[in-house]
Design goal:
There is one protein chain. The protein contains 13 helices and 22 strands. The protein has 557 residues and is of the alpha+beta class. The strands form eight sheets. Strands 1, 2, 3, 4, 5, 6 and 22 form a seven-stranded mixed sheet that branches. A three-stranded antiparallel sheet has the order 10-14-11, with no helix packed on it. Helix 2 runs parallel beside helix 12, helix 3 crosses helix 4 and helix 8 packs across helix 9. The protein starts with a helix and ends in an 8-residue tail after the last helix.
Length: 557
């Protein structure tokens, strides 16, 4: 008998320590894949409802873009943000009320602005440093007893999802770990769990005809008259008029410069598989003791920035960025103008790519953006006044220290989007169709960055895909848009890659809203467990009452 027990102990020891052999975790109520802000909010909510939850983060850092440089919170209307999402921003205000957290400037000298300006009587603050957001989210998780947080757990996308009919039974990671739960939430930016579970989805832009929209598909709007008279769309996303696209100016036979599409776009409103550009939301500083000067990357290729130089030679007069002030003399720096941090057209493969290919895409984006910043700050072909402005800035020594100030979280503005029984569209944004089963509110304008760069019929370079449409106010997001069709999966919720058209997703895809939807997904998952029903059969009235209890904003319903 002793020998038998000893053998069992040895077998268990080998299984748990041998790479590639599965370690099975049995007793989770809810398994959440993706530890970005939405996943964190979902885990906190599930814990507060007494559920045993595991939060699986593929990287070594939680928070996604909220801790990855996006400190300039895109909101639209602050009153639309409730629940755990608002709790986070209230915690941001508490954090900065502590004088010890003001290291590089005095609190009274910091000025926020625009949509994120905090009024004196507000209960929340909407701008923050990446390191502050990380501390706050970690602190919120630490207050919960029922959350197991595991880093470095990346889904086996080939054989990792085991289903029984339409129900997920377990998911396996590349590490070999297997996680079982009653309910699953895919909070990832890419929708990998959703896709691996056999749920249908879209990538790219629908045609306007498909959902009776006007701002989807190709958005070229080009005529010779308008392109000459237009003043670069206020400089936000277009090149100056007359920028030559060829390696040797005026010589098509010399070939196109890098990152220009060879084909001319089809007619406006035509659908395609192209997605809006990605970038890194940089956290910069001009405080000398905390500044890392921009460095020329080892893989720098001057030809990659020829369009940048030519755009200034054609009359560009501003630094191509939106440099929003964050506390402690830092920034959230985003794309602006015709040639900027958006690496236009270089992300098409990302949503479906394997992990190694995605890594290469991220590295190319990083190398491009490093080269851009060095060029703006130091290249002799840049105007002196641009070099003077940009060279005052640099990466922060105390942010993303392991990467010399550069973050690893790429701004994945869109990837996959689920196709469920309810697709959020432009009509929802415009208030023409109102969802009757809200799980949160969207309030930002329809915002699509450019998707491609091409040569006009006049022979000049132009960007295409930028849409900035402002709405009349917050609008409800349907519960059905965060759950799959019943015939596809019965115990999965998708709060980030939700069911939406490209153009409607451009309004919904904001971090505060992702937190709202993550919390609502966890409420629905918990109630479905309690009532022993599928997510599709959960009575909405029960969900509505619970969401109200947990302070979600659901409009007038």
């Amino acid at each position: 008998m002793w020998h038998f027990v000893r053998i069992l102990q040895l077998v268990f020891f080998v299984i748990t320590l041998t790479p590639g052999l599965a370690q099975v975790y049995q007793n989770y109520d809810i398994v959440i894949y993706g530890g970005n802000s939405s996943g964190v909010a979902a885990a906190i909510q599930a814990s507060r409802m007494g559920k045993k939850v595991v939060l699986l983060e593929p990287t070594n850092r939680i928070g996604g873009l909220t801790t990855g440089g996006l400190g300039q919170t895109d909101i639209g209307n602050k009153q639309a943000i409730g629940g755990i999402s608002r709790e986070f921003y209230q915690n941001v205000k508490k954090y900065y009320q502590n004088p010890a957290n003001w290291k590089f400037q005095k609190k009274e000298n910091y000025k926020d602005g625009g949509q994120t300006k905090s009024d004196i009587n507000e209960d929340a603050m909407w701008t923050f440093e990446p390191s502050a957001a990380l501390k706050i989210l970690k602190g919120m998780i630490a207050e919960e007893r029922n959350i197991t947080l595991e880093y470095g757990q990346r889904l086996d996308r080939v054989n990792g999802v085991k289903k029984s009919k339409v129900r997920i039974v377990s998911i396996k990671m590349e590490s070999g770990n297997v996680y079982k739960g009653k309910m699953y939430i895919d909070a990832s930016y890419e929708g990998d769990l959703m896709a691996s579970a056999g749920v249908r989805y879209s990538i790219g832009r629908e045609s306007n005809d498909e959902y009776q929209e006007s701002l989807n598909g190709v958005q070229n709007n080009e005529t010779s008259l308008t392109i000459k008279k237009r003043k670069s769309n206020n400089g936000v996303s277009y090149f100056q008029y007359g920028v030559d696209p060829y390696v040797e100016k005026g010589k098509p036979e010399s070939g196109l410069l890098p990152f220009i599409e060879a084909s001319y776009p089809p007619s406006d409103g035509t659908g395609d598989k192209k997605i809006q550009a990605y970038c890194f939301r940089m956290c910069l500083t001009d405080f000398e003791d905390n500044r890392i000067p921009f460095e020329k990357p080892s893989l720098y290729n001057e030809l990659d920035y020829e369009l940048l130089f030519r755009n200034y030679e054609a009359g560009e007069s501003a630094v191509p960025w939106i440099n929003s002030s964050m506390p402690n003399r830092k920034t959230d720096t985003n794309n602006s103008r015709g040639f900027s941090t958006d690496f236009i057209g270089q992300n098409y493969a990302y949503p479906e790519a394997d992990y190694n290919t995605r890594k290469l895409i991220v590295e190319k984006h990083l190398n491009y953006q490093k080269g851009l910043m060095w060029s703006l700050a130091y290249h002799p072909r840049m105007p002196a006044f641009i070099r003077e402005q940009v060279s005052k800035w640099g990466m922060c020594k105390d942010e993303f220290e392991e990467r010399n100030g550069w973050q690893s979280q790429l701004y994945v503005r869109e990837a996959r989007r689920m196709k469920s029984d309810y697709v959020m569209t432009q009509s929802n944004f415009e208030g023409l169709i109102i969802a009757s089963d809200p799980v949160g509110m969207a309030a930002y304008g329809m915002d699509s960055h450019n998707t491609q760069r091409f040569v006009t019929k006049e022979g000049f370079v132009r960007n295409e895909g930028n849409v900035e449409a402002h709405g009349s106010g917050p609008y409800p997001i349907s519960y059905q848009s965060i759950i799959p069709k019943k015939e596809e999966c019965s115990n999965l919720l998708v709060p980030v890659c939700l069911s939406s058209t490209h153009i409607a997703f451009g309004s919904i895809r904001m971090e505060p809203v992702f937190m709202v939807l993550g919390q609502s997904a966890a409420v629905a998952a918990s109630l479905s467990i309690d009532k022993k029903v599928t997510v599709q059969n959960l009575p909405y009235q029960s969900l509505h009452e619970a969401l109200r209890k947990y302070k979600q904003v659901l409009g007038n319903k």
